[in-house]
Amino acid sequence: MSLVAIALKDLRLIARDRAALLFTILVPIVVITIVAETLGGHDGGSILLPVVNDDQGPVAEALIETLRKHVEVMEVDRARAEALVGGEKRAAAALVLPERLSKRYLGGQPSTLTLLTDPAKGTEVNTVKAYLMLADTEAAALADPLSEKLLGLDEHNVTGSRLTTTSFEQNVPGFSVMFVLMSTLFGVAFGLRDERDWGTVTRLRMAPIGRGTLLGGKLLARYAVGVVQMLILFAFGHFAFGVSLGPSVLTFVVLTLVVVFCMTGFSLLVATFARTREQIIPIGLTVVMLVCAIGGCWWPLFMEPSWLQRASHVTPTAWAMDGISDLILRDSTLRGIAPTLAALLGYGLACLGVGARLYRLAD
């Protein structure tokens, strides 16, 4: 009987924490939905493929109509195609159909198609190439525009110097960002909660130390740990898997400092919503999983539904992955990633300001 009584008592205590119960039940449903939408039934409909049709002939039209079944085709000029791939980074690749393609093909003469690519989106580029191969089969009855004997494919990188990337260059940065965010968030949340539970905050307030100094010191410690952790994880990825650190080690260090600063501010904001120690784990895990899934840490953003892609930059992880991809895959300089650094700094400062205000109100 005592065993049942103890269990019932604990169940009543658990039931009192409605926020923790809500996260326990609702969040797995949300995460499962995101994963299912992303990994299940992806048909390429969210892939944008700019096409420069310099031919305007029947073979080019047949190829374009075949591609429309699998990707979102946008007919543009050469300058706009390069901007969509290299400048705006909205597309992973753009296809250029040369002049006299139809005439040369129908006359039995070979031609070369040009594929302008952003290898930083290697998975999406490979998907586009796969759809081009599929178009070869589906368009066979419409003059077979991708005939192996008559047409070749010439790939040009418009964002960097490489034509290929490895899966490590997606996975190592993504999981490094996730684990640094997780350790920073839990470190900040448990650290602030322990100070309250142990009465340290009350004792420190009696000393000549301001609230800002107290909070800033604790955040600075977690920030330092996060920076060291990020540098170690990327160093391991570099030496173990050959992951590039970009054209400049200094630029990589600056990016690391800014990314971890943003994560620290974000961690403070999230920590203020955990009113009890029991809420820290469900809230923390929920936030980490959601922002990492939506922000491109687990998979390339193009795999997500269109509505998730549009919402991804609400998360700090999407900005972090943008900066890391620009640096290590697109060979960007410090000036090249300056807009991303500014966005990360602004995001971190906003989270620090709101989080500090909520923390003071909770005291």
Protein model, in words:
This protein is an alpha/beta fold and 363 residues long. It folds into two domains: 48-157, abc type-2 transporter like fold (3-Layer(aba) Sandwich), CATH 3.40.1710.10; 168-362, no CATH class. Helix content is 64%, strand content 8%. The protein contains 14 helices and five strands. It has helices at residues 2-16, 18-39, 58-68, 78-87, 101-106, 122-138, 168-197, 200-205, 211-241, 249-271, 277-294, 306-311, 316-328, 338-362, and strands at residues 48-53, 72-75, 93-97, 111-117, 151-157. Strands 2-1-3-4-5 form a five-stranded mixed sheet, with helices on both faces. Helix 7 (168-197) packs across helix 10 (249-271) and helix 10 packs parallel to helix 14 (338-362). The protein starts with a helix and ends with a helix.
